[in-house]
Amino acid sequence: MNEINAQKVNDFLKTRIGARFKTWLKICTHCGMCADTCHFYRANDKDPKMIPSYKVRFLLDILKKKGKVDKEYLDKVYSTVYHECNMCRRCTHYCPFGIDIALLISLLRAMLFDQNIAPEGLRKAIENYRQFGNQMAVTDEDWVDTIQWCEEETAEELVGLTIPIDKVGAKMLYTVNAREPMFYPQDMMEAAKIFYVAGEDYTYSSKPGWDDTNLAMFCGDVKTARTIVENTFKRADELEVQQVGVTE
């Protein structure tokens, strides 16, 4: 059995559970109104364990235990918050008290991340964000090379087409999912064609800020999630654009 730092767990939650969270945990009457809004509940023969309000039971339990839980217990929390909820927030819209269950689930994910418990794929993506500024570990050089290659390929079809990079004063900074340059550059080419025909004034950024995904958010890694957003706004300011465009 792995040791869990109970004091760290307790301190993490206590410093983040303010009046709003406490009220939500206190006023939930388990009326069941959120049940049918959950696709996990409906897809599992209406298993009562899948009712959204039941999934956040761990929060009160951990607080009552002052963080004194073991790895086996946190594995159960992990299974629920990652495999039985995708934080779509549909339940929140149907709760008569307006309890944001997804936000409570997000807090549990953040607590787990603080204990270094998170899906391996997400942890790897977060490492990539921190090192390269994007989830796919695309270097600045490879990113620019990909844009230039897309331009060459697309210009054969639409003569005169160019794909701007670091164009100061463009109307829009266009951002993409980092999977596009890695696996689907044709998506970037199609976007370039549309922008060219439409006469759109846009630019790519050669520096971090061009990946518009934020997988750190799904782990509750607020620090990295914030850095990702700040990268985009920083480049938007530096390039003096009016808008930030996001891929599909």
Question: Would you write up a description of this structure?
Answer:
- This protein has 248 residues and is mostly helical.
- The protein is 54% helix and 4% strand.
- A 3-stranded parallel sheet has the order 2-1-3, covered by helices on one side.
- The two termini are 44 Å apart.
Tell me briefly what this model is:
The chain is mainly alpha-helical. Helices cover 54% and strands 4% of the residues. The chain is elongated.
Low-confidence blocks of residues: none
Structural class: mainly alpha
In quaternary terms, these chains amount to single chain
Strand order of the largest sheet: 2-1-3
Helix proportion range: 40-55%
Name the shape in a single word. elongated
User: How many separate helices?
Assistant: 13
Give the strand tally: 3
Strand content: under 5%
Distance between the termini: 44 Å
Averaged pLDDT: 95
Question: What is the rounded Rg?
Answer: 22 Å
Name the helix and strand elements from N-terminus to C-terminus, one letter apiece: HHHHHHHHHHEHHEHE
Q: How does the major sheet shape up?
A: 3 strands, parallel
List keywords for this structure.
mainly alpha, single chain, 13 helices, elongated, 3 strands, three-stranded parallel sheet
